[in-house]
Amino acid sequence: MNRSLRAAFSTENITYSGGQPSKGQGGFYGSGGSRKIDATVSTESQRSKLLALASDVEYISNVMDKVLELESLLQDEQKQNKEVSNRSIELKSKMKQLVGTPEFLQCLDRLEIQGAPIWGLTTQEHELLKAAREKVNNC
Asked: Are residues 17 and 74 in the same domain?
């Protein structure tokens, strides 16, 4: 197989349909370009969106881990002091700051459509987003 023909096979989605590549039958399926998928346009834009979504999920996960730590500290504080203390006010304020940052809210908005997690996330990621939205609404 010559080099140019080999290059054509490796870069495009063309398959041989059988028979002899002669007039009227057989030949290369999609050789006229009718079935060619422009991989450079769709794949790159889709890949960048997927990477952005993964980084958004990771960012929200990291922030929610910090919020859970602060909630644990707040519960301990409330058990020790039955009244509202300066420490409990400080912990609540830190939680509100974490979930109220523009970056956190933008990540959350990109991962939701009409208030529900976008398609393609795992069940665990769905639960994470629901908890994150609840924290935003409650703070």
From this structure: no
Residues 18 and 60 in one domain: no
Which domain range does residue 99 map to?
39-138
Structure tokens at 62: 């990291």
Task: Give residue for tokens 């420490």.
Answer: 87
Model pLDDT for residues 78-112, shown as the tens digit of each residue: 888 888 889 999 999 999 999 999 999 999 999 99
The kind and range of the H/E element at 29 are strand 28-29
In the chain, the number of structural domains is 2
Residues 60 and 129 sit within 8 Å (Cβ to Cβ) = yes
Task: Kindly write down the DSSP assignment for every residue of 70-119, as one continuous string.
Answer: HHHHHHHHHHH-SS--HHHHHHHHHHHHHHTSHHHHHHHHHTEETTEEPT
What's the predicted TM-score (pTM) here?
A: 0.63
Q: Say if residues 19 and 27 touch (Cβ distance below 8 Å).
A: yes
